[in-house]
Design brief:
about 100 residues, mainly alpha, 2 domains, 5 helices
């Protein structure tokens, strides 16, 4: 999460939806309460980056269920064939099939 927020801050992307499969992390990042747990310092850094992003971009952090997690896993497997970081402006056929099945 922290690295994703750092990367987003370095780009000029707009209307970004960050999907997490951990409801606790989404809740912790969204609340104003100070987290004194072991992961609290990471949450504080994420909150700081989230604040900086809110000044720059239109984005949100949301919780997704198990189905979306399965789709994210399939997406990650499909893109392991690409060796460099890329921003795709198209949806590969293998991913489109998964998305269309989920929407129906």
């Amino acid at each position: 999460m922290l690295q994703s927020l750092q990367w987003l801050l370095s780009t000029n992307l707009f209307s970004v939806i960050i999907e997490l499969d951990s409801k606790q992390v989404v809740t912790d990042i969204s609340k104003d309460k100070i987290d004194l747990s072991e992961s609290g310092s990471l949450i504080v850094m994420c909150k700081t980056l989230k604040t900086l992003l809110s000044l720059k971009n239109n984005y949100k952090v949301v919780f997704t269920g198990q189905q979306a997690n399965n789709n994210a896993h399939a997406l990650a497997q499909a893109f392991t064939i690409y060796a460099t970081h890329k921003i795709f402006t198209f949806i590969p056929h293998c991913i489109w099939t998964i998305l269309s099945n989920e929407m129906s």
